[in-house]
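thought: user wants a sequence for this fold. calling inverse folding tool.
action: design(structure=
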């Protein structure tokens, strides 16, 4: 089997389930953990999450902003953390939300997905506001090395609706993006892949019908990165009622709901969330 992003995601799901643990070192969480608000505190926090996640889940999602706020020291931590997560056998989704055109976007992709990338990521989140094709037209070399991208389609923040619910030719922006991503996956997926390399961020707290989203698909499936579980209000137990037939392609992301239990309760919290999700999908 080729080492595509789709094949790596299938393997992660089969071996560890669909739970994804976010590495989100909020200032308040660092304080709860008794850590200083610094790159050093973030380093300890992130490595504890990796230690707890490895072997329990298949996917982690570092939120880049919480490292970036500490400048070069934070980026140095992020380099080490992403590479260590990869070495621990975790699929790494960098939540960076990059988006640009031409050589600028190529530089962003090289930073995360390139052969000499300082950071390690199997996939990186992107903003499609400048046109989804601005990114996907550059993806050929990255796809061959098992990398992917995940585009913002329908986000869980209330402000997103003012753009994403906008109508063009009778269809919402979100539904048009979903259609484009689905079409691309049919073209770009590796031979025999269940999942394509282009994912979609769709919040678990949303009314999908309101956003015009029909997630039913034939053939190659689109990976759905779903924030909103846990602290934001969506329940892992409700994944089937939220996403319907698409629930088996959802990367269910949790962060504060497990991270807030602290370094000593983290393993138990991850196990509990994983079991809740597995039961809901059974």
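)
observation: tool returned 282 residues.
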């Amino acid at each position: 089997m080729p080492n595509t992003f789709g094949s790596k995601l299938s393997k992660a799901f089969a071996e560890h389930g669909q739970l994804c643990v976010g590495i989100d070192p909020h200032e308040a969480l660092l304080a709860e953990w008794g850590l200083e608000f610094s790159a050093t505190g973030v380093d300890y926090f992130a490595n504890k999450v990796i230690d707890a996640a490895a072997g329990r889940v298949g996917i982690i999602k570092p939120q880049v902003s919480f490292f970036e706020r500490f400048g070069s020291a934070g980026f140095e931590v992020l380099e080490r953390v992403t590479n260590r997560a990869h070495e621990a056998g975790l699929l790494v989704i960098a939540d960076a939300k990059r988006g640009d055109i031409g050589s600028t976007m190529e530089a962003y992709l090289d930073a995360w997905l390139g052969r000499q990338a300082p950071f390690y990521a199997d996939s990186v989140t992107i903003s499609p506001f400048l046109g989804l094709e601005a990114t996907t037209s550059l993806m050929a070399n990255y796809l061959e090395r098992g990398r992917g991208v995940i585009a913002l389609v329908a986000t869980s923040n209330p402000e997103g609706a003012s753009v994403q619910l906008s109508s063009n030719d009778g269809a919402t922006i979100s539904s048009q993006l979903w259609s484009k991503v689905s079409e691309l996956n049919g073209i770009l997926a590796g031979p025999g892949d269940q999942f394509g390399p282009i994912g979609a961020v769709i919040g678990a707290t949303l009314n999908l019908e309101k956003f015009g989203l029909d997630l039913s698909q034939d053939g190659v499936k689109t990976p759905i990165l779903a924030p909103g579980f846990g602290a934001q209000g969506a329940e892992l137990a409700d994944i089937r009622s939220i996403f319907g037939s698409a629930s088996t392609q959802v990367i269910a992301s949790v962060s504060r709901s497990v991270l807030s239990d602290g370094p000593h309760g983290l393993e138990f919290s991850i196990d509990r969330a994983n079991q809740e999700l597995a039961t809901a999908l059974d």
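thought: summarizing for user.
answer: Here is the designed sequence. The beta strands are 19-23, 59-62, 91-98, 123-126, 148-154, 167-168, 171-172, 198-202, 224-226, 250-254.
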